[in-house]
Amino acid sequence: MLICLFLVLLNYSYANPNHPNPDLDEDVVRARIEKMTSEIVEPRYDIVVRSYLRTYLVRARSHSENIIGRSVLYFPIFEKYLQENNLPTDLKYLAIVESALNPKATSRANAVGLWQFMSPTARELGLKIDGNVDERCDPLKSTEAAMKHLKFLHKKFNNWPLVLAAYNSGSGRISRAMKRARTNNYWKVRRYLPRETHNYVPAFIAATYLGNYFEEHELIPAYPVLDMQMTETIKIYDTISFDEIIKLTELPIEVITGLNPAYRKGRIPANEKGHYLVLPTRVMPAVTAFMDTKRPDVEENLLEGEAILADDKEGAVSLVKFMYTVKEGETLEKIAQKMKCTVQQLKAWNQLKLYALTEGQELTIFQPKDTRRPVVVLKKMDPVAKIAPQPVEIVTLPASSIHNLKAKDVYPHDRFMYYQVKKREKLKDIARKTPGVLTEELERLNQISANQMLPSGTMVKIKRL
After folding, report:
1. What angle do helix axes 2-14 and 61-84 make, rounded to 10 degrees?
2. What distance in Å separates the CA atoms of residue 84 and residue 399, rounded to the nearest whole number?
3. Which of 46-60, 380-394, 450-464 has the highest mean pLDDT?
4. 320 CB contacts (<8 Å, ≥6 apart)?
5. What do you get for the CA distance between the two ends of the chain, in Å?
């Protein structure tokens, strides 16, 4: 998978020549890597690490921004399972090397998912693969399987660099290479390994650097929409189709499939052991109520999904935005624990570049309206609409027509969409009502001040999520 991913990154970079490509200051990067600490591998800067970093930070910056943006979805899952299995937290960067945090990623060898399992290995680890479901794409179940596999490899080698290499090419190949090298030192064993595995640990070092220092390289994370960040997971045992979920929730199909990538036919099949269903927190009550009507002890099942919300529109959960004032000595970790969210969400919601907070600083926090979470000092409570579509309409248009924009629609173009200002508004107004879009990013893309009033008809460039 490693070589395949690297080629994709290179191709992506050359296909986007207009993206800014600042050069890499090697002395600064080398100094940062030498100061990095890791329970996995001693960081070092060599020609292979340099090559991967130039791809992440120079050639394929937009792709790296997508990777970092997706970390808000998957790193909390990885960290939870790593902690439960007493494994080093830095192993979360392994999924960047494997799949670029894409749960649907497929290699040339047909390894699939965030953790890139081949079918035989996946089935050995308990993952189900059939015409309806491919649990290699399930973020929860595949991560649980990856933890099991990593623990097995560490028990066998008791050496994390060799574990990484074995994860890539198999434990048998690593054992044979160790015999030939007569050592368990990865850096001496690697000469006897295939080229992909030879470069695997350097790729992990580069991915770890990306996760820790992307802000210093002015990478702007492409965070997903709010509905994909604030989710709940339930286990269901009966069949439900994505069409039924759409009727119940009015969610875009892209959100449903993005949160539930393991299901191949637009439905979750019945299963006595249960399947995971992940949806935005604000719509989950309607779905659970509908699933309750399908239980055998309920006399009448609902045939139309709209019936749940039609009878109880006011009972549907909406989101509320709070402004939280930071107290002396508080950290993002403490606030996230108190507010039942994640550090990654706090950073995404507030466009934070650093982890450090100052007393009196205000943070935006989203919570379900009917939450029963601990009472804390909050102010400026603003209701958030139950359905918050992006203020853009996707219209198919040939790339060659982008220079002949008509002032009536939003037009996609490769990596961008164009939003027509309907009334006088500012860039910061557009960013505020568009989940996943940052004001600073709009300023950079359009070379317009965030406070400049834009006349009706102005076309604003927005990076596609």
Report:
1. 150
2. 48
3. 46-60
4. 366, 367, 368, 369, 381, 382, 383, 384
5. 24
Task: Give the residue with greater pLDDT, 102 vs 335.
Answer: 102
Residue position matching structure tokens 């308990």: 126
pTM over 0.70: no
CATH of the domain spanning 319-384, picked from 3.40.190.10, 3.40.50.20, 3.10.350.10, 3.40.50.720: 3.10.350.10
CATH of the domain spanning 2-217: 1.10.530.10
Please tell me whether residue 398 adopts helix, strand or coil conformation. Answer: coil
Separation of alpha carbons 437 and 461, rounded Å: 11
Which pair of tokens denotes residue 153? Answer: 């490899």
Domain locations in the chain? 2-217, 226-315, 319-384, 399-463
State the Cα–Cα distance between residues 190 and 200, nearest whole angstrom: 9
The length of the chain is 465
**Catalytic, out of 98, 135, 425, 441:** 98
Catalytic annotation on 98?
yes
pLDDT at residue 374 greater than cutoff 50: no
